[in-house]
Amino acid sequence: MVNIYQNILQAKKEGKKLLAVLIDPEKINLENLPSFLEKVHQSIATHIFVGGSTDKNNQTEKVVSAIKSITQLPIILFPGNVSQITHKADGILFLSLLSARNPEYLIEQQIKAVPFLKNSNLEILPTGYILIDGQKETATQKVTSTKPIAQKNKTLIVNTALAGEYTGKNLIYLEAGSGAKVPVDESIINIVKKSLTIPLIVGGGIRSKKQLNATFNAGADLVVIGTAFEDNESFFNDLKK
Ligand code: 1GP
């Protein structure tokens, strides 16, 4: 069995940076999957995340099974809600939306997930999820009916991340939102990174190798990219091993 969290901790210790390719089950074309994954395999990507704010046609399990049949990379669910949980993946980001005060996404969805998780082999990754304003109203904001934290509120962002660590989260995810116009600013990543002892995930609006490297250099341990690969698969050419 893959030990996802131990591998993330080990990479952090060694200063090895991790990249997750986000596959949205609502958007991926299964016929394209083999060629898409071939590009993933030739790139520096280390993880595959599967999820989206919604999955109207319940495609997640089918998509995860198809990915699993082709890749050795760890597959981690990044679910918008409890209906997107499938045992076919390797792990699950067990998210708590810490940036706002909607109990449904702070604890209710998590309670609803327990019957699916308690007899499952999915590795559970307790994750504090913090939405940061990426200058675009994202699907996550709409679905969760919450507002992101403004990028200028640095103290609030740091304290929210630290509250996550102190309440036992194993990971903090700074999220500008899928397709964000503005990714999480490097200065924010930097101060959050300096405050935390647990690994830091950053995603949303990262579209170039330059931005990816800047995000890593600012302190992200794992970066998540989805839209840039959906829009232009040739982006993988810039990220060859
Ligand atoms: C979204 O952080 C991820 O949840 C990835 O965002 O689609 O903008 O790369 P992008």
From TrEMBL:
<feature type="binding site">
    <location>
        <begin position="226"/>
        <end position="227"/>
    </location>
    <ligand>
        <name>sn-glycerol 1-phosphate</name>
    </ligand>
</feature>
<dbReference type="InterPro" id="IPR010946">
    <property type="entry name" value="GGGP_synth"/>
</dbReference>
<keyword id="KW-1208">Phospholipid metabolism</keyword>
<dbReference type="InterPro" id="IPR038597">
    <property type="entry name" value="GGGP/HepGP_synthase_sf"/>
</dbReference>
<comment type="function">
    <text>Prenyltransferase that catalyzes the transfer of the geranylgeranyl moiety of geranylgeranyl diphosphate (GGPP) to the C3 hydroxyl of sn-glycerol-1-phosphate (G1P).</text>
</comment>
<feature type="binding site">
    <location>
        <position position="24"/>
    </location>
    <ligand>
        <name>Mg(2+)</name>
    </ligand>
</feature>
<keyword id="KW-0479">Metal-binding</keyword>
<keyword id="KW-0594">Phospholipid biosynthesis</keyword>
<dbReference type="Pfam" id="PF01884">
    <property type="entry name" value="PcrB"/>
</dbReference>
<feature type="binding site">
    <location>
        <position position="53"/>
    </location>
    <ligand>
        <name>Mg(2+)</name>
    </ligand>
</feature>
<dbReference type="InterPro" id="IPR008205">
    <property type="entry name" value="GGGP_HepGP_synthase"/>
</dbReference>
<dbReference type="InterPro" id="IPR050064">
    <property type="entry name" value="IGPS_HisA/HisF"/>
</dbReference>
<keyword id="KW-0808">Transferase</keyword>
<protein>
    <recommendedName>
        <fullName>Geranylgeranylglyceryl phosphate synthase</fullName>
        <ecNumber>2.5.1.41</ecNumber>
    </recommendedName>
</protein>
<keyword id="KW-0444">Lipid biosynthesis</keyword>
<comment type="similarity">
    <text>Belongs to the GGGP/HepGP synthase family. Group II subfamily.</text>
</comment>
<feature type="binding site">
    <location>
        <begin position="204"/>
        <end position="205"/>
    </location>
    <ligand>
        <name>sn-glycerol 1-phosphate</name>
    </ligand>
</feature>
<feature type="binding site">
    <location>
        <begin position="173"/>
        <end position="179"/>
    </location>
    <ligand>
        <name>sn-glycerol 1-phosphate</name>
    </ligand>
</feature>
<keyword id="KW-0443">Lipid metabolism</keyword>
<keyword id="KW-0460">Magnesium</keyword>
